[in-house]
Design brief:
- By secondary structure, the protein is mainly beta.
- The chain has two domains: about 55 residues, no CATH class; about 280 residues, Sandwich (Jelly Rolls).
- It contains four helices and 24 strands.
- The strands form five sheets. Strands 5, 9, 14, 16, 17, 18, 20, 21, 23 and 24 form a ten-stranded mixed beta sheet that branches.
- β16 and β17 form a beta hairpin.
- It is globular.
- Pfam families: Neprosin, Neprosin_AP.
- This is Neprosin PEP catalytic domain-containing protein.
- InterPro entries: Glutamic_endopeptidase, Neprosin, Neprosin_propep.
Length: about 400
Amino acid sequence: MDLSSSIICILLHSLVFVSLIYSNNSLKIKKPFVNQTFRSEDELYKLNESIAIRLKQLNKPAVKTILSPDGDIIDCVLTHQQPAFDHPLLKGQKPLGPPDIPKGNNQMDNFNESAQLWSLSGESCPDGTIPIRRITEQDLLRASSDSRFGRKFSIMGSNSHQHAIQYVQDGEFYGAQASLNVWNPHGETPDLFSLAQMWVMAGTFEKDLNTIEVGWQIDQRFYGDRRTRFFIFWTADAYRNSCYNLQCPGFVQTNKDIAFGAAISPISTYNGKQFKISLSVWKDVKTGNWWLRYGYKNVGYWPSSLFTNLKDVASKVHWGGEILNEQYPKASSIQMGSGHFPEEGWQKAAYFNNINVLNSKRDYWVQPTNLQNYADSPNCYNVKGGVSRNWGTFFYYGGPGRNKNCL
């Protein structure tokens, strides 16, 4: 990027972003801008240089680059050069071969399965590579600091994250799966955050929680837009050091067709056609690693060595929706799911179906028992479940947020 481009970038962001300086290979927070609309060429050069260094750290060399219709840049990176192998525990390793696939009541099919926008043009990454969504200068500038980039946002001491979920707990769970239809929820907020996902967990919240999370999300602060995107997330220390997608090294990707953080297309429409994604997370009986499957595609795995409490088995599993309400305790206008309550049902409310857990032998999917419903604010977002012959265990969830009964 030349100097004139740098000046334009600084002018655009000077009123809303803190000044960043590079120190010890990391961008740090300085004092906010005060009458510093114009900065010296030396300051601009240093800032531009620090961002360039950080982007080089975050983005791996590509053997092929694909431009997505939504403007995303997808880099095809050699599998042995992916971020996972920057982790101290994984250095020098190579991706493992495919795992044994559990059998049983999974009922996974390709009916109205959503794809990823970047791949709809027919472009693909070559064998021996994986697709990685490129991190840009604008992505870094949206973050309050480099240490917060790619991490889950929370407001300490509040109930800002609100949920509508089904869950099982106090057991031994070796995997979870479900199909969930895909929506694009809205909200009157500058930084929209709304998602649907599975949580596979062990440990104690706010202390030593280990969790694997996978689903679809809108996170305007992270991605810079309001597109619905496929994501993963994991933590081994109760969210203190953890990241979305591949921002923190750890997850080993083996699939060349799925890009984390890429936009999903098509999505469901109210009273219209429904589109879904089918996800499975399970502990491989041979290696003990936690594998991720998207439809019929193995995507990759979290090595068991990354975890403490999830090293052996999960103690609870959640399925459902979540929003971030930065105005809590005031009600939010952010939609969860389709933005409609569970009672509206098919083609109107968001759903999870074919909900299963893995048996103790880790070879067969079964319907969970003792499922419970939970909603932080049922007048804003709720959940309602059941069991049917065609859908297995299922539930509808979500809501509009602020309404006459939710203030």
